[in-house]
Specification:
two-stranded parallel sheet, 2 domains, 334 residues, globular, 14 helices, mainly alpha, P-loop_NTPase, nucleus, PCRA, domain 4, PCNA-interacting partner
Length: 334
Amino acid sequence: MITFQQKILNVIKCFRRQWHLFSNSERTTVCGADCMIMALQLSMAEVNKQHHGDFTVSLSDLLETWKYLLYDKLGLSYENMTEPENYADMKKAYHAFLARSSMLDLIDIYQKCYGLGLVSEDESIAPVQLLEFISGIVYVQENNGSVLFTPSTPVNRHGRENVKVTILAKKCVCSYLSLLVNSKDDLALAHIVNVPDRGLDREAFTNLKHASQETKMSIFLMATSFIRTVELGGRGCASSLFDPLRAHVKGLSNFINFIDKLQEILGEILNPRIAGGQILSTVKMHLIKGRSSGDPFCQAVEEVVQDLDLKIKNIIDSQHEALTASTTGLSPAR
């Protein structure tokens, strides 16, 4: 019997194998529940700015729109739910954001897999099951074989704090890797642009986002363009578009130069196993610099990096034969 978790993993594996059927972009990122919410929040902020002149998004409005969006995208009945104000604009802005960021959310991947007939009947997932999964419900297999839905909640304060720190560490490390793979991943950039602290607050991110929209570039490419222009001292420095960014030159330069460092490792070290380990080690040292060894965040980063390093090794080992036979010169593992 295939467990629900295995079914979800099979859908993701199907996407990874057949990604060219899902997207025209060479680098496409899977958008999970947390990224979906963040993308929706940013999209709602833009719509609110257009209609009300204010970027503010209340938590209650976000959760209400999030629930409505899930039911809508999954084709589930939402007759008893009130459609959020300006929902059509928010939904359009949400999908436009994902498209600009070369991202597909889990629902899009699920529907595309089944639409193309890439998933067998044994691996089928009911829309309501996917709804429960994205909403944070965990399937627990009982001894008698029955399956229960239980909320995933830690049992005590200490446990909750450990979980939060681990989640933060994993999100930071994975966001650096995601941005390295997909430079259009604005959500990954949002997670790490000020981690560690570079003095890049919400105002800096907002200014970057507006400049990227004006130039129709990703936020990362916009930041890179700005820093390169400043470094070269060219005529482009006089552009009024760059004016709001001048106060953030130091922090943005620190960020862009660090990503350059990671890209150099990837370009110079041909062995993907060694390159992956070196990148993870560099990210780890960057995140824990200046912190004490007993800091819970340092310990969490260490554990996350060890886990990812092992996963990279397993991926490369499992694809060794395919890599040996490949004539492209570029390994899927990289």
